[in-house]
Give the backbone structure.
Amino acid sequence: MKLKLLFFLFSVFFIHTNAQDYIFGKIISEDQNELPEVTVINIRTDERVSTNRDGHFMISGRAGDELRFVKNGYERAQQKVTVQNISSPINIILVRAATLIAEVEIKKDITGDITIDSKNLDSPKKVQKLKSDLGLYMSKKSDPRIMAARPGEFVQPKGQGFSIGKVKNKWDDVDLSSYLRYALGEKYFTDLKIDRALIQHFIYYVFAGGFERKNILKYGFCSDADLMRFQRAVLNRISSYRAPQTQR
């Protein structure tokens, strides 16, 4: 009996310590511009996703994980996930990487002699080579090594991210689901016997049941009336969502 009790307690502890959640956030530049196509990496799981056109992202993880944010032309940033980050969005500011180009200054006076002036006004060979090398550099695509891990970092092949929705909309389903989870609170869903790890899945299940959200996604705004409509849709879908679980 003691052995069974010990095994049960160990199982509960293992499930609790290995529970996954979802981390939401937004990435902007120093001048407050929203940054799309930023690669977000969970160092522990090596899961990778990209920010949508509004700079939002969603990635699975838990407190203690470390997230890395990478975008060509910007300094890398890293953020350790805290318990507070699980319940509220993470805001990240990326700093543009400095690019140094050697400055060449030419000071020559015009003499009036065409032969001398033509030589003086022509760019020196070093300047011409610099311009040529710079033009060649600008015409090339970014070196993939920029995105490579630093020495000692473990990397696996990139996985699939998430859909960023239609270009004409200000929000996509990820943005809306993130807002609903924030506005209603996780307790709203757990009171309905929805496990925290399945809240996101349940919200998408309600969406799939015909919840009208065209205008919400178009304008990027969810009104109080929309929240009430969603809660009515939840009540209509909760029984069918639980049904497969009760049949097991």
Q: What stands out?
A: The radius of gyration is 27 Å. The longest strand covers residues 21-29. Confidence is low (pLDDT under 50) at residues 4-17, 154-166.
